[in-house]
Write a structure and sequence with these properties.
5 helices; 12% strand; two-stranded antiparallel sheet; 216 residues; alpha/beta; 5-stranded mixed beta sheet; globular; Elastase, domain 1; 43% helix
Length: 216
Amino acid sequence: MTVRGTPTGCVLGIVPPHLLEALARNGTGDARDSAERALEHSRRLAAQRRATRGRPRGTYSMMATTPPQDREIYDAHNGNDLPGDLVRAEGAPAVADAAVNEVYDGFGWTWLLYWEVFGRNSFDNDGSALIGSVHYQRKLDNAAWDGTQMYFGDGDGEYFKRFTLAVDVIGHELTHGVTSTESNLTYQGQSGALNESLSDVFGSLVKQRGLGQDAA
């Protein structure tokens, strides 16, 4: 997979590069600028993503009691530095920022699915914190897993709203963390397609289970 002709390695963003490329070519104003920034950001993260591949696999084991969740939500203040300022930690009450609360709840839904259905403690099955940063860059047209945490753009306001609104996006991206610690699928060709397909399935599972829906 490439971004404007440049190999990117594992591009684990919910908006695929070819769509961002189309917006960069054909969009106007904020939409075009936001797409170009998202593409440039994908290039910078390529080396980082490759460096996080091959982490040890988790060991499946069902504990006698439910382990504690560990969620950390940060505000990047539309800047480039991650994670940013901690604005809500595990057990803290809701805050005024809707994006922060949406990520906190989405992380909780995802964690519960993996624990209650599959006996998996966090994305790596080792209880690691689920870390997310909201308001990353200015009007960024994407949300992604970067190998260690999630970040969320606010969208350009024309084609995309804030990426924290959809819990299945959160479930999808966190599942990339699960996949990377279990199978480390090469992100190209059929293995790359399988990587994305698994994330799509589990993103939908998170949403349906959180809403109390069944397969029917």
